[in-house]
């Protein structure tokens, strides 16, 4: 059983809520169109379950098209924030695992997972999806990895530096390199492995670009801090220092803040060492992979 738990602390979950992208209407429409094709009916549908819901990034996008929504996550802190930002009376947040979902057999119209399925025990999750989906229910697994970042200086879009800045971002986000990379490899493969693991021919995969324009270097650093790999490196270093010194302070951890290393290198490249982080802007693009499937019949 996969038990990597990086989204637990107050620190990462509040950064997550502030800095992670929400999804766009193009993604919503692709999922709704698929549901319509499979069910033969337009919305509203009865029940959606969003597993690994975080603080509700995808829940909020899809909630208006269902009469009832259950959003769950293994992390208590993600659920605490999800509950506090919930604007819908028909959406309920609770702590729970994607591999064991607290709903009746054949009761769910849409089982959704957004940027989370690469952490699940996939075969258990798929088994559970088969138990809970209605015969005409749909499984939608969406996800993005590290964004592409294009710097903008003095109103010029420097697309020739996209590769450089994106590689720099990847380098610092994965600086630790001491962690189990299975989850990231799934994301890097744009969910093609998840797609091929779904044991049915009735499935589809596509991609949508999630474009955020004119985001500052401060934002980009926040986006980095909200990532499991950055958090895992921070925890790894904190434990190492604790073992040596008996305790660890924020001051001790400063040299290992990968966001600062990224900021310094990117500023040097752009010759903007003296600029404030808020003044340096980027276009940030997350490529979102969308995998959708009919209910899996286990004897298929
Ligand atoms: C990258 S976040 C995605 C959050 C949100 N769905 C989004 O799209 O931004 C991954 C989430 O999956 C949750 N998670 C990881 N393993 C899980 C599991 N086995 N069952 C339920 N949630 C899980 C984590 O706690 C985390 O909140």
Your description of this structure?
This protein has 300 residues and is of the alpha/beta class. It folds into two domains: 10-144 and 183-209 and 288-294, 3-Layer(aba) Sandwich (Rossmann fold); 148-181 and 213-284, no CATH class. The protein contains twelve helices and nine strands. Strands 1, 2, 3, 4, 5, 6, 7, 8 and 9 form a nine-stranded mixed β-sheet that branches. Strand 1, helix 3 (59-62) and strand 2 form a beta-alpha-beta unit. The longest helix is centred in the C-terminal third of the chain and has 18 residues, at 228-245. The chain starts with 9 loop residues before the first helix and ends in a 6-residue tail after the last strand. The mean pLDDT is 91. Residues 7, 20, 51-54, 57-58, 73-75, 78, 97-99, 114-116, 119-120 line the site of S-adenosylmethionine (SAM).
The radius of gyration is 20 Å
Heteromolecules bound: S-adenosylmethionine
Helix content: 25-40%
CATH superfamily of the largest domain: Vaccinia Virus protein VP39
CATH architecture of the largest domain: 3-Layer(aba) Sandwich
List how many beta strands DSSP finds.
9
Biggest sheet descriptor:
9 strands, mixed
Average pLDDT taken over every residue: 91
Q: What characteristic shape results from the CA principal axes? A: globular
Strand content: 15-25%
Distance linking N and C termini? 25 Å
Order of helices and strands: HHEHEHEEHEEEHHHEHHHHE
Task: Count the DSSP helices.
Answer: 12
What kind of assembly state do the chains in view correspond to? Answer: single chain
Q: How many separate domains make up the residues?
A: 2
